[in-house]
Every structure is written in structure tokens, then in C-alpha cells.
Design a protein that fits this description.
428 residues, N-utilizing Substance Protein B Homolog, Chain A, Rossmann fold, 18 helices, 12 strands, 45% helix, globular, binds S-adenosylmethionine, methyltransferase, MFS transporter, RNA-binding, RNA methyltransferase activity
């Protein structure tokens, strides 16, 4: 890429990393606080540095530990973050070494006692780092330990390494769901139509500058995120309740498919984003700002979608902060709310209607286990198994029980997809 970020961007990148890694702020929020006042171009640099630092944190820190003769003390935290961001610029953004070394050192201030060590270690990264980090085994260091351990136990070493290979890639493609004519849009935007039906393009400049955005011809939605709504089949003329709807990718899909959609979300702000997305797309839905656990209606619906809040461990390709911000305890913590939302959703499914439950999590506690527990509580529901091939996916994207389980390594040769779980349940 050959990026040479200016000094304000480098300082803001350090602040962003401090906010994410030391204060637990989500990356997008940290970027707004640390870089919100910078110009567009500088903000893009900050984002690129932060993304590469977080994506490759594991591998870079593995090398930092090797290059240091003894670990940095606690008071050297800024020096450590300067090394992390500096190495990311050298190894993954192709920034020129002299600028990276000088400016990362200068971020520490004239009186810092860590200037010498940061200088020496960054020079070592410049000399040896590219070769050492290029080894395939380096990739598995990128994954946070807690996720690597879980995924190795569940999917095995080969799949773990395929997932790590996809998560390693910095150029994450952009997926668009088009209202019609996927081939035409793929040709116009220089992309391809995926077997799942999404149009995939290389990430480039700002999304609103792309052809068709202002005219509302498509919206951004990861290929995996389109699959849950497709499990309902033909939606034209059917009523659909979207229980956790914002920012509205799935609401838009259902509305474009001809459903009469009621979209509920507890966040009024996120619901506003949903409404403006629908306005741009010239699609309609009834929107309700409410906690779905208290949502009250006489009506029942032909289709109910519950895209439940979750740890989002399936979205590390675009959100590498998530693996460092969350841990094992968060996985278990959300299951109570997921059960409650599922029970509430079940009450709105018309006889003969369909409930689709999904999460963008890789963890079974937020997917398979929730559905097993739900079916044990609700005798009136049965699973309608998913056909992976009909969705354009390999057969291992459906579990033995018949649920959808996509992995980042699915469509791996084309850049992968988000890890998603979805179950289709029919009300007798
Ligand atoms: C995974 S996101 C939904 C993404 C959305 N379905 C889409 O495709 O764009 C989860 C959403 O659930 C909402 N949410 C979380 N708990 C909720 C609750 N108890 N009731 C209603 N909405 C809730 C959050 O505000 C968030 O917008």
C-alpha cells in the first residue's frame, strides 16, 4: 500500500489503540473520539493503522517479545503501543521505514527513557520482521488465545488454520445486496456475483461515492448476513416481524422481497439509521422503538426473525477489535437474554409460520445450544433443516442437526465471509 501517515494520524492511532486495548472501547467509538476532528484522509490513515495493529496484534507481539532482551515494564505501555502500531505500518501498510521509526519514537516525547528501545526494535522489524511474519505458522498467533483454543477444539486444526488464513488478510472485500440485476451491478462496479447471490467488490474509497448508492440500488451487507432472511423463502405478501432490526440490512432484504415488515429495535438512534437506510432504498417498513422483551401486539406474523445481540465473534474480518475486547465470560453472559428474546419471538409466530433465529457469533452457546434449549421448552416448534447447496454454500455450512453454520473460511478463496449461525423453526 505504501502509506506514509502524517504525524497527527500516528498520534491519533496510538490514542485509538490505548482506548481499545486499555479502556475497552469498541474500535469505531475509539476512532470517533481519537480521530473525529482530523481530515478525511488522515482519519483513513488512523483507521488503517488501528485495523492492521489489531488484526495482527498477536503475531506482532510474538515478535516484539523475541526482539526485546527483557519485557518492557508497566511504565513502558506507550512504548509497547508505539511498537505495535509501528510494526503494523512497516509490515502491513508498507510505510517507509525512516518515517515510521522516527515518528513512532517522537510520539513518546523527548524525555521518554524508551526512545532507544523503540528505535532499535522497529529497526529490527524493518530488517527481519517481514520475513519472519510471512511464515504460515505466524498467522495462528494473530487469533486471540481464547478464540483459537475454542475454534481448534470445535473445528480442528485444518479448519482453524483456514480461518486464520482468511482473518490474516487486510483487504476485506465489500459485499453488496442488490435490489435486482446482480450481474449488471457486478460489471458496473468491477466485482463478481458470489454463489450466494451477493455482489462482491474490492474495498476502495468511500461507499457513498460508488455508483448506485444515491439511487438506492444496493446496500452493504456481508454475504453471510443475507442468508437468514433467505431461509424464509418467498416473502411476497407475507407479514414479517424483525425483532432486533437495526441498522436494517435484513429489514431491507425482507421489504425488497415483498414482505410487510414490522421492524423493532430498542435503540432509537440505531432505528433512525435503519429509517434513513430504508428511505435511500425507497423501501418501507413499520418501525417500533421498543425493548422486544416488552413488545406487545395482538397480531401474529407469518415470519419472525430474531437476529439476537451476541458477541459477534464471526465478524473479526472487519472488526478485529472484538477478539481482544471480549472473552469467554461474555459468551455465557448473553445467553439469558437470547433465551428471553427467543421465547418472546415464539409468541408472535402464526400457526404454520416460521421463526428464524440467527447470530453473527461462532460460539455454540449463542447458536446450537440456544436452539436445543428452545426446542426443549417449546414443543409446538420443530426444526426445518437448511439446505446449504441451495444457498450456494458447501455442504459443511449446514450442521448435522440442520442449522446453518458459516465460517470465515467459507468462500475462503474469494476472501471469506462472516461466521453466522441460523436455525429455521416452524410453528406446528
Ligand atoms: C445484531 S444487531 C441486528 C442487526 C440487524 N438485524 C441487521 O441486519 O442490520 C442487534 C440489534 O439488536 C438490538 N437489541 C438488543 N437488545 C434488544 C432488545 N432487548 N430489544 C430490541 N432490540 C434489541 C440492538 O440495538 C441491535 O441493533
Amino acid at each position: 500500500m505504501g502509506l506514509s501517515p502524517p504525524p497527527p494520524a500516528r498520534a491519533a492511532a496510538l490514542d485509538t489503540l490505548r482506548r481499545v486495548l486499555d479502556r475497552g472501547q469498541p474500535l469505531d467509538e475509539a476512532l470517533t473520539s481519537a480521530a473525529g476532528r482530523l481530515e478525511d484522509r488522515e482519519r483513513r490513515f488512523v483507521r488503517a493503522i488501528a485495523l492492521a495493529s489489531l488484526r495482527h496484534k498477536g503475531s506482532i507481539e510474538h515478535l516484539i517479545a523475541r526482539y526485546l532482551s527483557r519485557p518492557l515494564p508497566k511504565s513502558g505501555r506507550d512504548a509497547h503501543l508505539a511498537l505495535l502500531a509501528g510494526a503494523a505500518q512497516l509490515l502491513f501498510l508498507g510505510s517507509p521505514a525512516h518515517a515510521v521509526v522516527n515518528e513512532q519514537v517522537n510520539l513518546l516525547g523527548q524525555r521518554s527513557k524508551f526512545r532507544g528501545v523503540v528505535n532499535a526494535v522497529l529497526r529490527r522489524f524493518d530488517r527481519d520482521g517481514r520475513r519472519e511474519i510471512g511464515q504460515p505458522e505466524a498467522r495462528s498467533h494473530d487469533l486471540p488465545d481464547w478464540l483459537a483454543r475454542r475454534w481448534r477444539a470445535r473445528f480442528g486444526e485444518d479448519t482453524l488454520s483456514a480461518i486464520a488464513g482468511v482473518l490474516w488478510q487486510d483487504a476485506v472485500p465489500l459485499d453488496l445486496t442488490v435490489k435486482s440485476d446482480p450481474d449488471g451491478w457486478a460489471a458496473r462496479l468491477g466485482g463478481e456475483v458470489l454463489p450466494t447471490g451477493s455482489v462482491r467488490i474490492a474495498t476502495g474509497g468511500p461507499v457513498p461515492d460508488l455508483e448506485g448508492f444515491d439511487e438506492g440500488r444496493w446496500w452493504v451487507q456481508d454475504a453471510a448476513a443475507t442468508l437468514p432472511v433467505r431461509l424464509f423463502g418467498d416473502l411476497s405478501g407475507r407479514s414479517l416481524l424483525d425483532a432486533c432490526a437495526a441498522p436494517g440490512g435484513k429489514t431491507a432484504q425482507a421489504a425488497a422481497g415483498g414482505a410487510r415488515v414490522t421492524a423493532v429495535d430498542r435503540s432509537p438512534k440505531r432505528l433512525q439509521t435503519l429509517q434513513s437506510n430504508l428511505d435511500r432504498l425507497e423501501l418501507e417498513a413499520e418501525t417500533v422503538a421498543a425493548d422486544f422483551r416488552n413488545f406487545d401486539r395482538e397480531e401474529v406474523f407469518d415470519a419472525v426473525l430474531l437476529d439476537a445481540p451476541c458477541t459477534a465473534t464471526g465478524t473479526l474480518r472487519r472488526h478485529p477489535d472484538i477478539g481482544w475486547l471480549r472473552g469467554e465470560a461474555d459468551v455465557a453472559a448473553l445467553s439469558g437474554a437470547q433465551d428471553e428474546l427467543l421465547d418472546r419471538a415464539a409468541g408472535f409466530v402464526a400457526p404454520g409460520g416460521t421463526l428464524v433465529y440467527c447470530t453473527c457469533s461462532m460460539e455454540p452457546e449463542e447458536g446450537e445450544t440456544r436452539i436445543a434449549a428452545f426446542l426443549a421448552r417449546h414443543e409446538g416448534f420443530r426444526r426445518a433443516p437448511v439446505d446449504a447447496a441451495a444457498l450456494g454454500l458447501p455442504s459443511d455450512a449446514a450442521t448435522a442437526e440442520g442449522d446453518l453454520r458459516t465460517l470465515p473460511s467459507h468462500l475462503g478463496e474469494r476472501g471469506g465471509m462472516d461466521g453466522f449461525f441460523a436455525a429455521r423453526l416452524v410453528h406446528a
